[in-house]
Amino acid sequence: MGNSDGPPSYPVTDAICPFYIEKHSRVQTSFGISLHLVVDLDSDCRNQSPGILSEADTVAENPPVMPTKIAVVYYSMYGHIRQIALEVKKGLESAGCEVTFLKVPETLPDEVLAKMGAPGIGAEDEVATADKLTEYDGIMFGIPTRFGMAAAQMKAFMDSTGGLWQKGALVGKPAGIFFSTGTQNGGQETTALTFLTQLTHHGMVFVPLGYTNPIMFDLKEPHGGSPYGCGTLAGADGSRQPSDIEKELAVTHGSHFGKIAAKLTAK
């Protein structure tokens, strides 16, 4: 201890539990690791059993991991977007996320919907309201396209989030987009690009699909989706249903989004 030419030397004690170590001692643990410890022998530590931690200590060292809560906010008149949403959900859940579907309110009157042959999709899902968005760690938006842009129902919903914008309530939350168009060149990317303005003004963090799945390069058959997000082609009359490729890309996007969201929201 009095040697001024080098670091102080301490007695070496073999022990499994540090509660039995002298003050300022170096411990040679059972794992062969030397640790410098400072132990107050006047504390309650001396009453602990060697090598045993209490349940409270274990919980404190290993707090329960809460799942990342993701809202899938969607509008679907004929069901294509909701089908893709179900695949996105699979991907999110594979990444350990807790998923809730929030259905954007309809703006068209029932008589108009009846003439359009709209079957009424997602009656079992919660109705989306602006205030609910703050309850989630991240949000994925399912958007049908109308003339190369988001459907009016989704736009009306986003217009209702002005109060959240004023408070910065969505700043930093991860956000993703998936979409449906009637034709292969019906505006999937323009829908994504024009919807990005909504996310940007809220200060959200856009998480696209990118090229995270090699099937993006598959040109054997027409399919929806782009680097901006997964998607589907509904056909001009809505008769086409999501293909296996589109479903796979939706699962990939959900999984990718879930992993990124978990990192961004890690406590």
UniProtKB/TrEMBL annotation:
Gene3D superfamilies, alphabetized: 3.40.50.360
Stored InterPro entries: Flavodoxin/NO_synth, Flavoprotein-like_sf, Flavoprotein_WrbA-like, FMN_Rdtase-like_dom
Any Pfam family hit: FMN_red
Protein name, entry field: Flavodoxin-like domain-containing protein
Similarity remark: Belongs to the WrbA family.
A cellular component term, taken from the record's GO annotations: membrane
Signal peptide: none
Domain Flavodoxin-like: 70-257
Lineage of the species this protein comes from: Eukaryota, Haptista, Haptophyta, Prymnesiophyceae, Prymnesiales
Organism: Prymnesium parvum
Example GO molecular function: FMN binding
